[in-house]
Structures are given as structure tokens and as C-alpha cells.
Design brief:
Length: about 400
């Protein structure tokens, strides 16, 4: 229905000719179907050169202790490697020290052999002169016995010379030098400094400085971190997420390359809730706890082992100190005995074999004294290897 208001046909129209409102019946107009063909077109929506970039951010709000456990694990493993490197350094120091003083000992023994050989050669010439003079107290058999001993000592001195050269070559090899280089120690004798230390205090100190003990402590820390990280899988993980993205399509501004499409951001909240994983988490926790228990038992064994090892070294140091004192007195007595017998032999008061025996005993006692000094120094070096070089502060004599 169409309603035409009055006066729609302009002023002056006779109102009697139009009846308002006027009603028109509804009509339906049918038109035939038509096709509008559109030719094929190439519509550009993006430029051929497209550069895109995005930043994806995630921040864990709650992880059930996973990050703490991983930090403990990585920190423990790193500390274990540090202690392993420290132990390697101590082993190198121990090897160099023992080979150095071993080279000094070899030089001392070689010098002792030459001195002994020189004195016995003098005795041999004296025996020859007494034999040829025909005094009757010195016979040809005495001369021959003396000559046999001199040549035997000469052969031993040749071996001692070889040992000195090899000790110097071994020292050079330990220091990383080529095989054809010999290093001659500057020291002429092995020093001796008595120590003063309490065994229990020394064992307690070893737990602070021993690389093996520190390595095991770091392993316990890593094992505890593994337990914490494994138990974190029981709990949900909550995180905030965010993303910034953008792309650049040269200077094209039509199609889909609109400012709204080129740049955007997304913010979200993520929750990861574990429901069932076939008891995997439970078994991981059990495995980590078993490893921690094993390390704790190893720590008990290491504590006892360190105590026994240090006790053996300390007792060995005490024995080496007593041996050094005893061999020092024996060496001095042997020197006096050799000097006395030599002067008596020159005056025909003693037999030839007694002079030879006195010279050999002096060489033997001197060699034992040098060996005792080296043994003491080697034990100190081994003690450094067990508890670290810091133990020397505990072993130095009080001022």
C-alpha cells in the first residue's frame, strides 16, 4: 500500500479529484535469468618481494621446580668438571715434582759412585805399591781382590750415569719437551723439612681441599637437582605467551597488504596439565633417588678411604723422617770408619779387605740416606695429590 499525503500534487489541485489515501494492490515482477560474463583478470594483492619477521615470547609463571632442578644439575656438572681439571693439574704437579727430585737423586747416586770409584782407585794404587814393596802384609791376592771390586764399581758407575741421563729425559718428557732434550735440575741435593701436623686435623682438612671429595659433593648436588627436575613433571606448567609479527611488502598498499595485515600482536595464557604418561615421571624420580643414594654411599666409602690413605701417607712420612735421621747418622759413622781404616791401611795396621768393606759400606749408607730423602719428598707429593696443594700450609713447621 502506498499512502500519498494531501497536497502532493501541488497547490490548486482539486481535492475532490483525489481520494486520499490511495491503495495499490501488491504486484510481483518476474525477470528472466541473466549471465554477466567477466573477463579473466590478473589481480595483484601483494608485491613479489616480501620480508617478514616475528618475535615469540614465553614466560613461565610456574614450572613445578623444573628450572631450579636444571640449574642444580648444570651447576653440579660444571663443578665436577672444574674439580676434574683441578685433579689433572695436581697430577701433573705431582709427576713433575717426583721426576724432578728423582733426577736429583740419580745425580747424587752417580756422583756418589764416581767418588767411591775414585777412592777405591787410590786404594788400589796403594795396594799395588804395598804389594810390590814386598812388605808381606799385602799379597797379590789382596791386590787382585781390590782390582775386582774397583772394576765392579766402575761398571756400576756406568749404569748410574745412564740412569742420570734417563731421569733427566723423563723429567723433560713430563714437562712436555721432546724426547731428545734433557733437563738438568738446579738443586744438588734433596731438602728435608720436618712437618708438624695432627692426623685428625689433616683428614678433616682433606674434605675441604680434596678434588675427589669436591667432585663427589658436586655430583650429589647434580643428583638432587635431577630429583627436583623429575618431580616437576607431576605439576602443571603455567606461562604467559606473546607474539609480535610484521611483514614488509615494499610500497604496495592494496590487496591484502593493508596496514592492519602487515603488523599485529598476540597475547595469551598457556597451561600445560599432565594427566597420564604411563608412570614415566614416577620411574624418573625413582631412578634419580637411587642415583643419589648410590652417591651418598660412595661418599661414605670415600670418607673412610681418604682417612686410611692419608693415615698411610702420614705414617709413611713419620717412618721416612726416622729413616732419614738414622741413615744420616749411619752415613756419618761410615764416613768416619772409612777415613779411619784408610789411614790405618796406609800405616799397615789393617787388612785390605777391611778398607774395601769400609768404602763400600760408606757408599751403601750414603745411597740409603739419599733414597730416604727422596722417599720423604715423594710421600709429600702424594699427599698433595690426595688433599690438594693447600695441605702444605698445614704441614709447614711452626715458626
Amino acid at each position: 500500500m502506498v499512502t500519498i499525503p494531501a497536497g502532493a500534487f501541488g497547490p490548486g489541485s482539486p481535492p475532490s479529484t483525489i481520494q486520499l489515501p490511495v491503495g495499490y494492490p501488491g504486484q510481483t515482477v518476474n525477470t528472466p535469468a541473466q549471465n554477466f560474463p567477466i573477463p579473466e583478470q590478473n589481480v595483484k594483492v601483494l608485491d613479489n618481494d616480501l620480508v617478514s619477521g616475528s618475535i615469540d615470547l614465553k614466560w613461565l609463571l610456574f614450572d613445578g621446580g623444573m628450572r631450579k632442578g636444571l640449574r642444580e644439575q648444570s651447576g653440579g656438572q660444571l663443578e665436577m668438571m672444574r674439580q676434574e681439571a683441578r685433579r689433572t693439574d695436581l697430577e701433573i704437579i705431582d709427576s713433575v715434582k717426583r721426576f724432578y727430585w728423582g733426577a736429583v737423586l740419580a745425580a747424587q747416586l752417580y756422583q756418589l759412585g764416581e767418588d767411591t770409584l775414585s777412592r777405591m782407585e787410590v786404594t788400589l794404587r796403594l795396594t799395588e805399591s804395598l804389594y810390590k814393596e814386598g812388605s808381606g802384609k799385602v799379597t797379590k791376592a789382596d791386590y787382585l781382590d781390590n782390582e775386582v771390586m774397583v772394576e765392579s764399581v766402575r761398571a756400576m758407575v756406568a749404569h748410574l750415569e745412564k740412569n742420570e741421563k734417563m731421569a733427566q729425559a723423563a723429567l723433560a718428557n713430563t714437562m712436555g719437551l721432546p724426547w731428545n732434550i734433557n733437563v738438568k735440575p738446579s738443586a744438588e741435593e734433596i731438602p728435608f723439612q720436618p712437618y708438624r701436623g695432627n692426623l685428625e686435623e689433616l683428614v678433616g682438612t682433606s674434605y675441604e681441599f680434596s678434588p675427589d671429595w669436591e667432585k663427589l659433593e658436586a655430583g650429589l648436588q647434580a643428583a638432587e637437582g635431577a630429583i627436583t627436575a623429575a618431580k616437576s613433571e607431576y605439576y602443571p606448567k603455567v606461562a604467559l605467551t606473546g607474539e609480535l609479527h610484521g611483514w614488509w611488502n615494499d610500497c604496495f598498499r592494496e590487496g591484502i597488504a593493508t596496514p592492519q595485515n602487515r603488523n599485529g600482536w598476540i597475547a595469551g595464557f598457556m597451561v600445560e596439565l599432565p594427566l597420564f604418561n604411563g608412570f614415566l615421571t614416577q620411574n624418573k624420580v625413582s631412578e634419580a633417588r637411587a642415583r643419589l643414594k648410590q652417591l651418598k654411599e660412595t661418599q661414605i666409602l670415600l670418607r673412610e678411604g681418604l682417612g686410611l690413605q692419608i693415615k698411610d701417607l702420614v705414617l709413611g712420612l713419620d717412618a721416612a723422617q726416622k729413616a732419614d735421621q738414622a741413615t744420616s747418622r749411619a752415613m756419618k759413622a761410615a764416613q768416619d770408619n772409612r777415613d779411619l781404616n784408610t789411614r790405618a791401611y796406609e800405616n799397615g795396621l789393617v787388612e785390605t779387605d777391611k778398607v774395601i768393606r769400609a768404602q763400600l759400606v760408606e757408599a751403601l749408607m750414603s745411597a740409603q740416606h739419599y733414597a730416604a730423602r727422596y722417599q720423604y719428598t715423594a710421600l709429600l707429593s702424594q699427599l698433595d695429590l690426595v688433599v690438594g696443594t693447600e695441605v702444605m700450609q698445614k704441614l709447614r713447621p711452626a715458626p
